[in-house]
């Protein structure tokens, strides 16, 4: 049996769109067919979205994207004002991004492991598998404990996930987990420094959930920290009200997709005639036949009053293939050059004060 050290020897390397000018390639794809032409149109819409400086850009992340090597793209999007808010699954933000910010890594798994034949061996070695990627379970438990410590440090009341994740960013800065102090950059840190709010509507469905369980178990009968998903929804709706023109860039589907799309309807419930999302791009490998949200089309979302049909594009592709092309195209065309950070966190902090 191989040793743990032997299996965890090739770290995932995060792709850097700054190093690859894909503009000529994507432009050439405009004259092709199938997913190539769809990808070109999606890249053009994202370019248009960024040049529309009134538009607030919301990035939705489902699936295990950061462990797969997309972390640096998300960081560059934040630091170059190419995104104004993020809605994500908890695994991407806690188990993967925060995990790496603490100094840990994800590793490449050989082909013999990605189909599950050796999972019993991996369990013996305390190695967790995400398809063809490995993560050290012992290191993940350290990440769990740090989130527990952050939970214990907070005022015992309901918090939005956005508030909690901001505290995670403050922790990284305070503890010197920054590039300036010899650490690595992270999505949470970049968002903290650029005032980009991150929402995780199902926050307990990740390693942070273990910290909440431990915290609430220890504080039975006493005031405790909890996550208020309704507060998440209210806060994101306030952003739609404050900035009516919005665009979505969605990886996968699930809760992040629906959460972000629904703020149009939520604003209407609050008596505000909010326009549908002006721009929308979804990258997915799902289709619509089983009725699942991940495969429902953007045209279907229009029937619910959520997405305008003028600038929408479905891209049927795995995200690690399509996202570097779409974001790299806009980056190297300098679509973001006139954008200033909207600093949406400051709006939400004001909402929290007045609530």
Structural overview:
Helices cover 48% and strands 14% of the residues. It is built from 16 helices and 11 strands. A 6-stranded parallel β-sheet has the order 7-2-1-9-10-11, sandwiched between helices. Strands 3-5-4 form a 3-stranded antiparallel β-sheet. The termini are far apart.
Give the gist of this structure:
With 355 residues, the chain is of the alpha/beta class.
Which overall shape is indicated by the principal axes computed on the Cα atoms?
globular
Report the uncertain regions: none
Name the strands of the widest sheet in spatial order.
7-2-1-9-10-11
Q: Pairing-aware structural class of the strands and helices?
A: alpha/beta
Oligomeric state of this protein? single chain
Terminus-to-terminus distance:
58 Å
The share of residues in helices is 40-55%
The overall strand count is: 11
Strand content: 5-15%
User: Any idea what the radius of gyration is?
Assistant: 20 Å
Mean pLDDT: 93
Number of helical regions: 16
Please outline the major beta sheet: 6 strands, parallel
Secondary-structure element series: HHHEHEHEHEEHEHHEHEHEHHEHEHH
Protein name: Deoxyhypusine synthase-like protein
Pfam families: DS
GO molecular function, one term: deoxyhypusine synthase activity
InterPro entries: Deoxyhypusine_synthase (IPR002773), Deoxyhypusine_synthase-like (IPR023496), Deoxyhypusine_synthase_sf (IPR036982), DHS-like_NAD/FAD-binding_dom (IPR029035)
